[in-house]
Design goal:
Blueprint: E1 2-8, E2 12-19, H1 21-38, H2 51-58, H3 62-83, E3 87-93, E4 107-115, E5 120-121, E6 128-131, H4 138-151, E7 154-157, E8 169-177, E9 189-195, H5 203-209, E10 217-223, E11 241-255, H6 261-267, H7 273-305, E12 308-309, H8 314-335, H9 339-346, H10 350-378, H11 384-393, H12 399-408, H13 412-431, E13 433-436, H14 441-453
Parallel strand pairs: 6-13
Antiparallel strand pairs: 1-2, 2-4, 3-4, 5-12, 7-11, 8-9, 8-11, 10-11
Helix pairs in contact: 1-3, 4-14, 7-10, 7-13, 8-10, 10-13, 11-12
């Protein structure tokens, strides 16, 4: 098989494939034999019908059409690999003008395909980023302690004249009805301990109870929220608003435990407060050490993305979004939950989810294209040994056989593309200019609070 590549305008390529006459003759002979053994033709034993009889029974172009279709489907993926292009989407064949193979003659066909464009970066200098301090500070350990105490807090009654505030808890008696005045059993309750800003109800509900105190009653209505909240999610599409008749049974407040050696002995299982601080410090530092390489790479890619010049083609964006969604739904399937359950857990709507996926896909596509530009500028190459190592890392039992299969299917460009991006990312990370950023309270919380809070 011979291939010829012609670069067209608009990130298109035309690939011309020529299959030699011996291959054509062998495939036609094999197909006639297969048909003769497959069909029973009157007057002939199975497998013995001659070509003219088969042509007369099935049509003079049947065998040639089957051979043509098989050869095109088998050879175009290999042609993509031979040319070294990076296709985007599926190839386009001019099927109306494609001839059938002819016994004893070479066969030529061509196809066009969109290809990944070569974009440029505004700069190929080392990327400059900021990273958090490698070691945790005393202030961040204080925050970890505060979070731990919050985990063990009690909710106790506040003085009778205490008003409902944004950081308070409250006991409510609730009667809820829909547009038609019908009771809503999922919300109506004789007593609900409710924390404001807890995402059980929308903010419009919280606004209505601010300033109330024990014994107060109030009637009000709120519009059915477009976002999903725990207490209203099941009402979507069933009512336009929710009518409330509430009574404040009591205002509550948080009571944090006193941090003493005795308390940490009973609740945490360490001897002293200082020992607890030391353990937290070791845990957060260990977490930081583990997450720092990924954080560094993410920030390098985010900075690199800003250097990309030109627009990412729509086809690349679509592929990026499809990949992201496939990975996401595979993860949901492994966790055994549905998309509706996930949306409810996250408190977002399907529209917000789609917008978020599109934004993530766009960022991912831009980062990939930026890595492609950097790899091309630096002249990185992918060897067969690089590819073989990639299959070995993936745990493939027979890397050579898998490599041959991927080449035959025309999918090896995906592996080459991935390796080039890995090489570019590693070079950028290794060469990045890093400065230390000032510690941030929210980053301290993210780094260790959740792990200790679940202890």
């Amino acid at each position: 098989m011979e291939t010829k590549l012609e670069v067209l305008e608009g990130n298109r390529a035309k690939v011309t494939v020529t299959i030699d006459e011996k291959t054509i003759a062998d495939r036609i002979k094999k197909q006639y034999k297969q048909v003769a053994n497959q069909y029973t033709i009157p007057g002939f034993r199975r497998g013995k019908a001659p070509r003219p009889v088969i042509d007369n029974a099935l049509g003079k172009d049947y065998v040639r059409a089957v051979v043509t279709d098989d050869l095109v489907n088998e050879s175009y993926p290999e042609a993509i690999e031979d040319t070294g292009i990076f296709p985007v989407g599926q190839p386009d064949f001019d099927e109306e003008n494609m001839d059938f193979v002819v016994d004893g003659q070479a066969y030529t066909f061509d196809f066009e395909v969109d290809t990944k464009p070569t974009l440029e970066l505004s700069s190929y200098d080392p990327v400059e980023i900021e990273l958090p301090p490698e070691k945790v500070t005393d202030k961040q350990i204080d925050d970890e302690i505060d979070a731990l105490l919050e985990h063990y807090m009690d909710i106790v009654p506040a003085p009778a004249n205490t008003k409902v505030k944004e950081d308070k808890y409250v006991n409510l008696k609730i009667t809820a009805t829909d547009d038609n005045g019908e009771d809503i059993p999922s919300i109506t309750t004789d007593e609900l301990q409710y924390g404001l800003d807890s995402s059980l109800f929308p903010p419009t509900f919280d606004e209505q109870i601010l300033g109330l105190k024990k014994g107060d009653t109030k009637q009000f209505s709120i519009d059915m929220p477009s976002e999903a909240y725990a207490m209203t999610a099941t009402l979507a599409g069933k009512t336009a608003q929710i009518n409330f008749d509430i009574e404040v049974l009591g205002v509550l407040k948080k009571k944090l435990p006193e941090l003493t050696d005795e308390w940490v002995q009973n609740k945490i299982g360490v001897e002293t407060v200082q020992e607890l601080r030391d353990e937290l410090s070791d845990e957060v530092n260990s977490q930081r050490e583990g997450m720092m390489p990924l954080l560094k790479e993410n920030r390098v890619l985010t900075a690199l993305q800003e250097r990309l010049e030109g627009d990412v083609p729509e086809g690349v964006l679509e592929e990026s979004e499809a990949t992201l969604l496939q990975d996401f739904f595979n993860q949901l399937q492994r966790q055994g939950i549905t998309l509706d359950v996930y949306l409810q857990q996250q408190g977002i709507t399907s529209d917000q989810f789609r917008d978020d996926v599109k934004q993530q896909a766009a960022d991912m596509a831009k980062q990939d294209m930026a890595l492609d530009a950097y790899a091309a500028h630096e002249g990185f190459e992918v060897t067969d040994e690089d590819i073989r190592k990639e299959f070995e890392i993936a745990g493939v039992a027979d890397p050579d056989a898998m490599m041959a299969e991927w080449r035959q299917k025309g999918q090896m460009y995906l592996v080459r593309q991935g390796i080039l991006r890995q090489k570019a990312a590693q070079a950028l990370v290794d060469g990045a200019i890093v400065t230390e950023e000032a510690p941030k309270d929210d980053e301290a919380e993210k780094s260790g609070k959740h792990a200790k809070g679940n202890a």
